[in-house]
Amino acid sequence: MIVQRRAVTAVLAAAALLLTAGCSSDDGEPSGADGGTSPSRTTAQSSPSASAAEQTPPAKGSVKVLRTVATGLKSPWGLAPLPGGGLLVSSRDEATITRVDEKTGKKTELGQVPGVSPSGEGGLLGIALSPDYASDHMVYAYFTSASDNRVVRMLYDEKKPSGEQLGAPDTVFRGIPKGVVHNGGRIAFGPDKMLYAGTGESGDTGLSQDKGSLGGKILRMTPDGDPAPGNPFPDSAVYSYGHRNVQGLAWDDKQRLFAAEFGQDTWDELNAIKPGDNYGWPRAEGESDGSEFHDPLAQWSTDEASPSGIAHAEGSVWMAGLRGERLWRVPLKGTEAAADPQAFLEGEYGRLRTVVPAGGDRLWLVTSNTDGRGDAKGGDDRILELRVT
């Protein structure tokens, strides 16, 4: 893999410092004749002075697979660790949520989510716990219905029998465009206790630049589904736009948001998200020549990545690759890539869907080989526990 880097240059003049600053199908099938042939690149996105005081992680890291936590999962997509122990896992195609005992691997089905319409890349996708889960026991889910993509919340009652532990879904947000492809689907509560959702343009590229559409966006809303206070556009849940298909959301320890999205034929992206910014799709894929669009901090050829989930740990963003079948490490200095991305586990576990912090230097990693696009082997799909540096 050849890596190229574009340096940030500073010019001092007149006492002023000027800083110049296809389809990798979401699930990994190329659509262009030349898709997936370009090398990875990293791009500086912030002033060195803005991040000079931050500790920079080493250029090279490491990954060790500590153990296989669970096997035999069917089309797993989202994962949410419970505060008292246990992992909730959503099944895209079966529309179920299952609790996995992270110590024994025992699986207990909570129930099936009604109203889910699995098709293509749609179905039961991301899940997240309420920021007040300790008192309200609410589980949020993003799914594809017969008419749209939506976010619901359900009461999780552990005292009820297996299969009956999920309450009726309460729809908190609806109207996100759906399609056979590009349904987005990742949801996460941020440090501000607001709910963020990554959406796709559902195959209609014009939606991404339309600030009046919910497709091709990162959305930010209250837990009740209202546009969150402080959003960049009045009375709108839209937080950033110009995205193709966002399936990775994570915050660093300074509460800065990062997002991964699928490119088409040339570049997959890792972006530092700034509210109100335009990330270019479909007018730009990867870096662009003009200043109108927010360039990615790192980008990959589509056969190296096809990124879904991301997590922040040990000073780096860790990115799960579907078609790329590898875990990427991007060390950060502020909102810059501090060094070239580094790949781990290449081809060892097949397609990688979701990666979630497990505390300290540990990560949970979910494979994705039983969704119809992978080469499923005995034991798939599985959850792994990793130690990373």
From TrEMBL:
It comes from the Bacteria. Gene3D superfamilies: TolB, C-terminal domain. InterPro entries: 6-blade_b-propeller_TolB-like, Glc/Sorbosone_DH, Quinoprot_gluc/sorb_DH_b-prop. Residues 37-59 have a biased composition (Low complexity). Residues 23-61 are annotated as: Disordered. Keywords: Signal. Pfam families: GSDH. Residues 73-373 form the Glucose/Sorbosone dehydrogenase domain. The keyword Ribosomal protein does not apply. This is PQQ-dependent sugar dehydrogenase.
